[in-house]
Amino acid sequence: MLSGRLPxxxxxxxxxxxxxxxxxxxxxxxxxxxxxxxxxxxxxFLRPKIWSSRPPGVEAHNFITANAADHARFRKVFxxxxxxxxxxxxxxxxxxxxxxxxxxxxEAIAVDRTVDLVQWLNFTTFDIIGDxxxxxxxxxxxxxxxxxxxxxxxxxxxxxxxxSIKYYPLLHTILMKITPAxxxxxxxxxxxxxxxxxxxxxxxxxxxxxxxxxxxxHNRSSPETGLSTGEIEMNSMxxxxxxxxxxxxxxxxxxxxxxxxxxxxxTLQREIRTTFxxxxxxxxxxxxxxxxxxxxxxxxxxxxxxxxxxxxREVPPGGATIAGHFIPGGTTVSVACWTLxxxxxxxxxxxxFIPERWLDGSGNINKQADAKNLFHPFSLGPHxxxxxxLAWMEMRLxxxxxxxxxxxxVPEGRKLRDWMEQKIFWTWDKDPLDVELVxxxxxxx
Length: 445
Hints:
Blueprint: H1 6-17, E1 20-24, E2 27-30, H2 34-40, H3 68-78, H4 84-109, E3 114-116, H5 117-134, H6 140-143, H7 148-153, H8 156-164, H9 169-178, H10 181-203, H11 211-221, H12 229-242, H13 245-260, H14 262-275, H15 284-288, H16 291-303, E4 313-314, E5 320-322, E6 325-327, E7 332-335, H17 337-341, H18 388-405, E8 406-409, E9 423-425, E10 427-429, E11 434-439
Parallel strand pairs: 2-7
Antiparallel strand pairs: 1-2, 3-11, 4-7, 5-6, 8-11, 9-10
């Protein structure tokens, strides 16, 4: 776990020992597709306490740390902000930042054609969700640098270490006593920034309805089930992190694998550049109907799930049957999605990037491609990703605009790093993705 190789190791052990694997004295990992439904659909399966703790000094809960009742309440408040209707209203904001991304990239390649897309995609996704979540951008794109708050919250390795040490209570107690003052100071600063951002948004209206608009509406109309200020702060921070870093992972993976597979990149270029005659035509509605774009994103989510580590749950008192096995209450269980998505039992050539596996013989999306119902990159059930419509819109629009605007190449004299050599600390510890961008001039038709 601390080496950043846990999902890879879990896969090798599943390959050796089968579909049910004991990974700790009271923790089991499953790769039977039925386990998805058995573990994640019932509301009674909650996150284990050691994986749902709050930072020191934080009283309020968020989606991750809440009990069943509070989680349902939080989700009810935030759900309208991610409906299809709300997502459509967010599109102008999303497109505005994508316009800025393309503009800033054009400025950058005028000086040096080689850019790090991981950095630029992070700038974009954080600026978008900052605006939609807190009513103000982090100004990463404008300033070509990370906001200090982002630098702190991207320390996923520290979060994973803090949680994994809880498997050893004595070590956890010692660690808490020797945590560097600088780390605690950074945490307090991040929490204070979140507090100030929320307070500023609550006190001011915005021109366009954002995520917070829906939270405010609910608190006014149904105060008995509304969120406290602390709950708004903690949940909005969770939404901002979840709505940025994970999208960067999928988009970076897509571009990486397209560069490794030039014919796939050519096919996507042809689809986008023959479908549209102007960049204004690239919208959420118009890109939804592009089968190869959807296939590329699905395959990128399979090859590189945004959260490749297991999503752990605790079996409720009394026990439960999971994939045909009775499991005692109190046991920690999970589906090893990385193992499942890279299993030769379920996918032909599982370690190869093949978008065509998601298409039928006519080149349209094959609705039976996931006949076993095992592909759930955003999880499923009451704890699945609440922001999927927004995530899909951003992924489609950003990738389409990049492919429309630029020829994307591996810089001369360089080689792509092996994606699977990257470490995983809850999410991907991504290496830079240095690419050469060449602006494409489109003739008016």
